[in-house]
Specification:
74% of the residues lie in helices and 1% in strands. The chain has 14 helices and two strands; from the N terminus they run ααααααααααααββαα. Strands 1-2 form a two-stranded antiparallel sheet. The N and C termini lie far apart (64 Å).
């Protein structure tokens, strides 16, 4: 029972991560498209400035929970997906450094390089997460000892590459909807217009992949998740045309949760399906002891509500819409003056 509970809890953590980090990946990718000058780019960045690092806590928690609850799944996953996960990690580091240091120096070239870091650090994970999850749905090359025996290019198939386009298009749509919800004036109009187009693109790509996954790899009951996701994406299309950003964001979030249900529902009772089902890692042959899972359950029961309350409070405090009028002039150091500083 406890292994099944932790499989569900890890799915919940991934759902929270994709919903929250999904929109800030989208915002990062849209930075050069919606930010036409430095002040507008600072508006775009400031919509996620107070929350982007908190959103990454969900990824750390999902990784930590996988390590503790299913150590063999964690080991096989991180050795098999070593290169894509390394690329994601490097991209996230570049993105984080760019966010933290963009405003430290008031120089156009400095800001331009920081913007490149944010853009690259948003595009790379947005694609690779989809490739990774699509591989988990389709199954990977595991031997009888549950060791990954494929190479990097064995992870790149038409199905998994389309999975990368699914997360890319969903995050772009989610980010555009979030920007329309968090800004006002001309930026809100432009973000809303872009969200209308992206909602159609995401619905077509995600719909095609979901039907493919359902027919080739999934089980009957996950058609319900496909139906919910489809209904929500159509709802986003309608809501963005009526400028109902709040509804559009809610429906976009539910669509991402439904996608996680489809992915984890397709894997169950495996945690890492193999192309040869006899070699699959299952909930039971990959799990920790009952004692470990019991301790983890009590810790989660006390700490998760605290984290949720704190993160909810953060979003409440920074709920105000932003415009270029809210952005002050740069106060960072001059790059020239910085070069003139001597030590001693």
């Amino acid at each position: 029972m406890l292994p099944e509970l932790w499989f569900v809890l890890i799915a919940v953590l991934w759902a929270g991560y994709l919903v929250l980090e999904g929109f800030d990946f989208g915002v990062g990718m849209l930075l050069p498209i919606l930010g036409r000058n430095d002040k507008e780019r600072r508006v775009v960045i400031n919509t996620i400035g107070p929350v982007w690092d908190g959103n990454e806590v969900w990824l750390l928690t999902a990784g930590g929970a996988t390590f503790a609850a299913f150590p063999e799944w964690y080991a096989t996953l991180f050795s098999g997906f070593y290169l894509p996960l390394l690329l994601i990690l490097v991209a996230l580091i570049i993105r984080g450094v760019a966010f933290e240091y963009r405003g430290k120096i008031a120089d156009a070239r400095w800001a331009s390089w920081a913007d490149r870091g944010i853009i690259i650090g948003s595009w790379v994970p947005a694609i690779l997460w989809g490739v990774a999850f699509a591989n988990l749905v389709a199954g990977v090359k595991l031997d009888a000892d549950h060791e990954f025996v494929g190479g990097f290019f064995s992870l790149l198939t038409p199905f998994t590459l389309l999975g990368g386009l699914v997360t890319l298009s969903l995050f772009l749509m989610h980010g555009a909807v979030f920007l329309a919800l968090k800004t006002d004036g001309e930026m809100r109009v432009r973000a809303g217009r872009l969200a209308r187009t992206l909602s159609l693109v995401a619905t077509v790509i995600a719909g095609g992949w979901a039907v493919w996954a359902q027919l080739a790899y999934s089980v009957t009951w996950t058609w319900a998740a496909v139906a919910v996701a489809a209904a929500c994406l159509v709802g986003v299309v309608v809501a963005t045309r009526k400028d109902r950003e709040g509804w559009a964001f809610l429906l976009s979030s539910v669509a991402l949760v439904a996608a996680v249900v489809l992915i984890f529902g397709s894997m169950f009772p495996d945690v890492m399906p193999a192309i040869d089902p006899a070699n699959s890692l299952t909930i039971h042959n990959a799990s920790s002891t009952d004692y470990t899972l019991t301790v983890m359950t009590w810790v989660a029961a006390f700490l998760v509500p605290v984290v949720l309350l704190y993160q909810g409070w953060t979003y409440w405090v920074f709920k105000k819409r932003l415009t270029v009028e809210h952005i002050p002039d740069p106060i960072g150091l001059s790059l020239t003056k910085t070069n003139d500083i001597t030590v001693g």
